[in-house]
Automatic annotation (TrEMBL):
<keyword id="KW-0963">Cytoplasm</keyword>
<dbReference type="GO" id="GO:0005737">
    <property type="term" value="C:cytoplasm"/>
</dbReference>
<dbReference type="InterPro" id="IPR023013">
    <property type="entry name" value="AGPR_AS"/>
</dbReference>
<dbReference type="GO" id="GO:0070401">
    <property type="term" value="F:NADP+ binding"/>
</dbReference>
<dbReference type="Pfam" id="PF22698">
    <property type="entry name" value="Semialdhyde_dhC_1"/>
</dbReference>
<comment type="pathway">
    <text>Amino-acid biosynthesis; L-arginine biosynthesis; N(2)-acetyl-L-ornithine from L-glutamate: step 3/4.</text>
</comment>
<dbReference type="Pfam" id="PF01118">
    <property type="entry name" value="Semialdhyde_dh"/>
</dbReference>
<dbReference type="GO" id="GO:0003942">
    <property type="term" value="F:N-acetyl-gamma-glutamyl-phosphate reductase activity"/>
</dbReference>
<dbReference type="InterPro" id="IPR050085">
    <property type="entry name" value="AGPR"/>
</dbReference>
<dbReference type="InterPro" id="IPR036291">
    <property type="entry name" value="NAD(P)-bd_dom_sf"/>
</dbReference>
<keyword id="KW-0028">Amino-acid biosynthesis</keyword>
<dbReference type="InterPro" id="IPR000534">
    <property type="entry name" value="Semialdehyde_DH_NAD-bd"/>
</dbReference>
<protein>
    <recommendedName>
        <fullName>N-acetyl-gamma-glutamyl-phosphate reductase</fullName>
        <ecNumber>1.2.1.38</ecNumber>
    </recommendedName>
</protein>
<feature type="domain" description="Semialdehyde dehydrogenase NAD-binding">
    <location>
        <begin position="6"/>
        <end position="146"/>
    </location>
</feature>
<dbReference type="InterPro" id="IPR058924">
    <property type="entry name" value="AGPR_dimerisation_dom"/>
</dbReference>
<keyword id="KW-0560">Oxidoreductase</keyword>
<feature type="active site">
    <location>
        <position position="154"/>
    </location>
</feature>
């Protein structure tokens, strides 16, 4: 029998936590032993999410009731500003536990930038330096030995997988990046918000957080690292689409001198030739959210712009899987020396 690793999910009553549980239930090396929630503590998971009626799961408990010593790994799906303290507490008493954080608390390397975008002080600056940014295809070797893995946000995952190889190879002018991004309503979380009510979000398309979305500094941080450019600034505008899950990002780029859209496409094909979850679409195929729904796959393609010296890169993923829970499981697999695709091999759901 395969080795069983005991896991806990913090914030299991949210969409991200629920998708992590869904994937973990079919993972041959995961045993779910702790599920935490806040207002839903004390309830069985099937009472919070009806699609778990067919499976036996631990009841939801408060964070204070969780037994960290019984776990090998903790997946954190908590709101920003709450993971700092919990992570420090777990590491202090149980340093063997690996934490795979799906919140924003450890993604940004600069605590001052974190404070300016999230409005709270970073209360765990002593352990921030050991956090590895969990973009698996880029930081795989560091993730192997990491105790703290900071999974990227959904928008950054879609954008960075498409643009980091191009920035690193010097094929684009990183000072001129415009990103038009669209996400399903689950990206806003499960909490009650007026703009995500059916009558507010249905049958319409809405921009939000224009010029101030909190995923912007992540994208700037990682493209800046890839290109060797400090204080990078990008243009990023997200939109809410009336569908449950899915995400599509269209990036408008200025090519480096002498480069073509074909050069960009060739670089992406070469970069991801042996990657299990990143697909470069056939030349005449435009990425669509229908290509990735419910899966850990990303589909990318490059299209020449009619404006000379420019190109358009389109990338799509499922915001709850590769954009969150699926990538977290992928990082878990890497960190524990398992086959990277274990438990996340399912193909996209269509129609």
């Amino acid at each position: 029998m395969a080795e069983q690793l005991k896991i806990g999910v913090l914030g299991a009553s949210g969409y991200t936590g629920a998708d992590l549980v869904r994937l973990a239930l079919r993972h041959p090396n995961m045993e779910i032993v702790a599920l935490t929630a806040n207002s839903h503590a004390g309830k069985p998971m099937r009472a919070v999410f009806k699609h778990f009626a067919h499976v036996d799961l631990p009841d939801l408990v408060t964070i204070d009731e969780a037994d960290w010593g019984a776990l090998d790994a903790v997946f954190c799906g908590l709101p920003h500003g709450t993971t700092h303290t919990i992570t420090r507490e777990i590491f202090a008493s149980h340093p063997h536990v690996k934490i795979i954080d799906m919140s924003a608390d450890f993604r940004l390397r600069d605590a001052a930038i974190y404070r300016s975008w999230y409005g709270v002080e970073h209360s765990a600056t002593d352990i921030q330096p050991e956090a590895v940014y969990g973009l698996t295809e880029v930081y795989r070797e560091k993730i192997r030995n990491a105790r703290l893995i900071a999974c990227p946000g959904c928008y950054p995952t879609a954008v960075l997988l498409a643009l980091v190889p191009l920035a690193k190879a010097g094929l684009i002018d990183v000072s001129d990046i415009v990103i038009d991004a669209k996400s399903g309503v689950s990206g806003a979380g499960r909490g009650l918000k007026e703009n995500t009510l059916f009558c507010e979000s249905g049958e319409g398309l809405s921009p939000y957080a224009v010029g101030k979305h909190r995923h912007m500094p992540e994208i700037e941080q990682e493209i800046g690292v890839a290109a060797g450019v400090a204080d990078l600034r990008i243009n990023f505008t997200p939109h809410l689409i009336p569908m449950s899950r899915g995400e599509l990002c269209t990036s408008y780029l200025r090519l480096a001198a002498g480069k073509t859209a074909a050069d960009l496409r060739h670089q992406l094909i070469e970069t991801y030739a042996n990657e299990p979850f990143v697909t470069i679409a056939d030349e005449d195929v435009l990425p669509q959210t229908q290509m990735v729904r419910g899966s850990n796959y990303v589909v990318v393609n490059v299209i020449p712009d009619r404006i000379p010296g420019r190109a358009i890169v389109i990338s799509t993923l499922d915001n709850l899987v590769k954009g969150s829970a699926g990538q977290a499981v992928q990082n878990f697999n890497v960190a524990f020396g398992l086959d990277e695709t274990t438990g996340i091999e399912q193909l996209p759901l269509f129609p």
